[in-house]
What we know:
This protein is α+β, with helices and mostly antiparallel strands. The protein has helices at residues 27-40, 48-56, 72-84, 95-101, 132-143, and strands at 44-46, 62-66, 88-92, 106-107, 113-114, 121-124. The chain contains 5 helices and 6 strands, in the order αβαβαβαβββα.
Amino acid sequence: MSEEGDVATDVEVVVETSVVPEQPLDQNTAIKMVLKKALIHDGLSRGLRECVKALDKREAQLCFIAENCEEPGYTNLIKALCNEHDINYLTVPNNKELGEWAGLCKIDKEGKARKVVRCSAVVVKNFGADSDALTYLLELIKTK
């Protein structure tokens, strides 16, 4: 082996990072993001019984109520408790979507929600970390 055959080369590695543009926030996507983060931090109460307990104990910070609940007495009870304890609430158009966002479903191999359980009310007790979606929802509540 001779030293004449050895060649040293410098190799530059260029890594391109693609920035995914965030989708513009609307009410439903913001609610979905806030509920997902609260679910991770174990800060959700789902269903009528858990929500009433959290509202009575004044642990609730925000409440979501489904508009298409079959029993109007449920929504009237939740709204009355929210008004009594000065807790803000927002309405969600579909109780099946609210159940999916609150984690009341099974996720299949493709990542799609299966066996979604309907949910009439969800209370957030712990938001977890602050996010853009949370500030958007709080500003939306202030304007209402």
